[in-house]
Amino acid sequence: MAAKQASKIQEKGTLGRLNVRMKERAEEGRKREVRLMLISLIDTFIILCIFLFQNFSAEGDIMSIAPDLTLPEARVENKPTQSVIVAVTNKSIVVEGKKVADTDEALKDPDLVVDNLYQEMVRLAELKRHIARLDESKEFRGEVIIQGDKFITFELLKRVMYTVGRAEYGEISLAVLKNR
User: Phi then psi for 59, rounded to 5 degrees?
Assistant: First the structure.
């Protein structure tokens, strides 16, 4: 007896059953439960939190020091507040990161007022007053921090202090490194 060949309908039925079985297996694979490794995840977050706590202080950075500036050391009692920062190096005078004058030009001027510094400070004072009018919680107090390089002359420091005082910044602080 010779084996009968399957008709095309029977072949399709067999192939159809194979396709159905493959689909069922694929669905079974999708229905498997996926469990997270919570212990490893928790450990990772704890390590991340410890790293962040060690690298960031609770007070935050009030000011950054200009790269070409060496601050003098002193015993410091008061912590700095957030205010306008004027950096004075041997080469330039910088207000809030913007160079406003060269120190040579500032020292050559017969007047004590450094003109470009004065104009920038007046502009910032007007801006801060405008902000204070819009937001009552922020008031203009005329506070400025001068970061003076420890190798600048007293004459230059005097001119900078006089100029910011003339621009209605009466609360002048000098930035120093804390002597330990």
Answer: -80, -30
Q: Which of 174, 67, 167, 83 is nearest to 117 (CA)?
A: 167
CA distance 119 to 117: 6
Residue 84 lies in a domain: yes
| ∠ Cα 105 64 179 (to 5°) | 100
Question: Cα separation of 166 and 84, whole Å?
Answer: 15
The CB density around residue 85, as the number of other CB atoms within 10 Å, is: 21
Q: In this structure, is residue 164 part of a structural domain? A: yes
Q: Is residue 1 part of a domain?
A: no
pLDDT at 159 (0 to 100): 92
**What CA–CA distances, in Å, run from 109 to 104, 105, 122, 148, 162?**
9, 6, 19, 19, 13
Ordered mean pLDDT values, 10 residues apiece, the chain (180 residues): 54 61 68 69 86 66 61 61 83 90 88 91 90 82 86 90 90 76
Q: Which domain holds residue 45?
A: 8-55
**Same domain for 45 and 78?**
no
Give the per-residue pLDDT at 18. Answer: 66
Question: How would you classify the pairing of strands 143-148 and 98-102?
Answer: unpaired
pLDDT at residue number 147: 86
